[in-house]
Amino acid sequence: MDQFDRDPRLIFIHADMDAFFAAVEILDDPSLAGKPLIIGHPGPRGVVSTASYEARKYRVHSALPSVEAMRRCPMGIWRSPRGERYQQVSRQVMKVFEQFTPEVEPLSLDEAFLGIEGSLRLFGGAVTIARQLRQQVYQCTGGLTISVGVAPNKFLAKLASDLDKPDGLTVVDPDRIQQLLDPLPVEKIWGVGPRTRDALHHIGLREIRHLRQAGVDLLVRHLGESSGQHLWQLAHGEDHRSISTERDSRSISRESTFEVDLLRGPSTESFLRIAAEQVARSLREEKLRARTVRLKVRTGSFRTMSRSLTLQVPTQEPLPLFETARSLLAEVELNGEGIRLLGLGTGNLIRQSSPLQPGLFDDQTSERRQQVVSRLLDESRQIEGGAGLERGKMLSPPPEDPSTG
């Protein structure tokens, strides 16, 4: 592996945390180590978020319905997802990445691309960077492992990071790309999901070598011009994409699937209040403001709808997020159905330091008061006993007492 350390063609890293949510739970509760741990809700309407490698031996994986996971792994230990805790650890990991290069493209909480072309001479080569990165992630998180792929392009780096999990380091030899790709199943290509896999299998294409041998015309005929050409290039190990560090492409959100379908009213408002507070806190921690508020609604019949609104002034405060989401929910046509899933998200993110242009009639005094309260709440969470404090305006009103008339 060391022979690749000075190869200037190895300019991309894909870093992927191993069974991230489960690993964080084990980190916080070591008694779970070595056990079939499943993160999700075990009810009849739940789905698996992730599973430990012990649970994966029973074919339990993310997005699997909880009922099926319980059938496959009846001895599984379940834990509910803790989004804020995962966000906290994710920020630690991303800061480690940024120590090696400013070109970091997060794909999710637990994985990212790194462009390291400008860092090769500074740190001594691609493999050295990958090794140091893995070591520092382990140290800064208190024991979490990460699998890393090093390659000439993004596609190959992501593929490589998955070849030796968990806790692996795989380097793609730039001179032996086709030897690596050819025997792999087509579903190893990033973006080939079950539907595309089945379509390729139907015409006899099961390995990446078969895609090359079939020719681009056959792929275009069955998959369309864009998809066929793209798949043809990836089958040859070609990927010309660069690292995207644009914050606007990111989003911060919270969503929940409810045990029982909810009616629009106090219960949905209670969720939106909590979600707005959590999203706003994440925005402040990442020193970002949101231009756009997004709402996601899924009914009992699995009809999914989304609404969004761009704010006049970007915010990192919960009240504008909540009020906007509440108004968006009021516009959704439920047609008598209950709400199975509800989500509040933000997009079009800008840096906190970016200059703002308030509206002529905006209540800037109220905005400053919200900022002061947020700062005090954020500071209180850093001291023992302060985490229980809540913002008065964001508390759900008490139920009305019918006896008062």
Return residue spans where pLDDT drops below 50 for at least 5 consecutive residues.
358-364, 398-405
Order of adjacent strands in the largest pleated sheet: 5-6-1-7-8
Portion of residues in beta strands equals 15-25%
User: How many DSSP E strands?
Assistant: 12
Helix/sheet category: alpha+beta
Summarize the amount of helix as a percent range.
Answer: 25-40%
Notes on the protein architecture:
The protein is an alpha+beta fold and about 400 residues long. It is about 40% helix and about 20% strand. It has helices spanning about 20-30, 55, 65-70, 85-100, 120-125, 125-140, 155-160, 175-180, 195-200, 210-215, 215-225, 225-235, 265-285, 320-330, 365-380; strands at about 10-15, 35-40, 50, 75-80, 105-110, 110-115, 145-150, 170, 250-260, 290-300, 305-315, 340-350. A five-stranded mixed sheet has the order 5-6-1-7-8. A hairpin with a 7-residue loop joins strand 2 and strand 3 (about 50). Mean pLDDT is about 85; it is low at about 360-365 and about 400-405.
Quick take:
The protein has 405 residues and is α+β, with helices and mostly antiparallel strands. The chain is built from 15 helices and 12 strands.
